[in-house]
UniProtKB/TrEMBL annotation:
Residues 335-368 are annotated as: Disordered. This is Class I SAM-dependent methyltransferase. Signal peptide: none annotated. SUPFAM superfamilies: S-adenosyl-L-methionine-dependent methyltransferases (SSF53335). It comes from the Bacteria. Residues 346-358 have a biased composition (Basic and acidic residues).
Length: 368
């Protein structure tokens, strides 16, 4: 249930639901403005007063850009991962306190406002019948995500076919680990496979392209389930792949279980970050505890894992090997690659010292 916020405007009391994809608390106060300097805006925002922007849409974007520039210019680079995450969260809270009022039918009343109906429908589904408040920063993210959703991400491991990912679902931009999955030798006579935490469905699609006859992809995120089903259907693999709204493993057993779990043991700040952050590696531990007993004879568990957590000091270097052994699993093979994404190359990135050393591995595990 979205919280309802109230404010005074022109001597009248107004109220509307507040929507935000972040996990920040709603603002304590709201002040409607049509013109304000970035300095004045920041002064109010630092007091946890949200600004309901009534002015020109593009001027609102300029105000948000000015706020971001001032906040970042006064912030020193974080010395470690936890401080970096805290700084990110603090910045996100500030940037999300410049609001727009979305009118019924996903319409904006601001001057020169673009048509945002398709972008908001991509996130929320059916159009709203009552107004709601939305951070401008979030709306810009929705618009960008909608364009990516339409365009799709080309995947070389799928012969260049595109995977289309809506907002709220992790995008397969890191193709290097997809290539590991596409080239690893399958267990002999593999007929059944599970893709756990399927997300966009890209791993299930790669397994289908490799000729596995019966594949089940599972995910507990409704947006991911819908996206995976759409991608599988679009790629022509519906006869081989079934996508289930299931948390972790489906019923039965499989010849191959594949999972790309969250790599970093930290608390997510938004729902979309659950694909990256998982406190205490909870999903990985649950999978290791359950998967060995669900493999058919001769079956394998494939894990795609980055060692970034080790370089950030979030996981001991020997932890994975110990966890595998504790679960009764042995390493049948191990292949790895270096990331090619832009962040790994940015020397000014606060976490460059770790990203520059990162490797991504495919662990092929078998019951002992």
């Amino acid at each position: 249930m979205n919280p309802v916020l109230s404010w005074q405007e022109h001597g009248e009391c107004h109220s509307a639901a507040w929507r935000s994809e972040s996990r920040h608390q709603p603002p304590q106060r709201i002040e409607a403005v049509a013109q304000i300097s970035a300095e004045q805006a920041l002064s109010l925002i630092h007091q946890n007063t949200a600004l309901l922007w009534r002015g020109d849409y593009h001027q609102g974007k300029q105000l948000l850009a000015a706020i971001k520039k001032r906040v970042r210019s006064h912030s020193k680079p974080a010395a470690d991962f936890h401080r970096h995450r805290l700084q990110q969260s603090q910045h996100s809270r500030l940037f999300n306190l410049l609001l727009l009022e979305v009118q019924p039918g996903f319409m904006l009343a601001n001057g020169r406002a673009p048509d945002v109906q398709a972008a908001l429908a991509d996130v929320y589904g059916s159009a709203n019948e009552t107004p709601f408040l939305l951070p401008l920063n979030a709306l810009l993210g929705f618009i960008g995500a909608h364009e990516w959703h339409k365009q799709g991400v080309p995947v070389p491991a799928l012969g260049g076919a595109h995977i289309h990912v809506p907002f709220g679902v992790f995008s397969p931009l890191r193709g290097e680990y997809l290539d590991l999955l596409a080239s690893a030798p399958l267990p002999p006579h593999t007929q059944t496979a599970w893709d756990i935490g399927t997300g966009s469905g890209v791993l299930a699609a790669i397994l289908a392209r490799r000729g596995i006859a019966h594949i089940i992809g599972t995910d507990s995120n409704p947006r991911a389930v819908a996206a995976a089903r759409a991608n599988i259907r679009r790629l022509g693999y519906s006869a081989q792949v079934q996508i289930n709204a299931t948390d972790l493993l489906p019923a039965g057993s499989a010849d191959l279980i594949v999972c790309n779990p969250p790599w970093l043991p930290a608390k997510p700040g938004a729902d979309i970050e659950t694909a990256l952050y998982d406190p205490n590696h909870a999903m990985l531990h649950a999978l290791l505890a359950q998967a060995p007993a669900r493999l058919n004879p001769g079956g394998e568990l494939w894990l795609i894992m980055s060692d970034l957590a080790e370089h950030l000091g979030l996981r001991p270097a020997n932890a994975l090997a110990q966890w595998f052994a504790d679960a009764g699993l042995a390493v049948a093979a191990h292949s790895h690659t270096r990331p090619q994404h832009a962040k790994a190359q940015r020397q000014h990135d606060p976490l460059h010292h770790a990203r520059s050393r990162e490797t991504t591995s495919l662990w092929r595990l078998v019951p002992q």
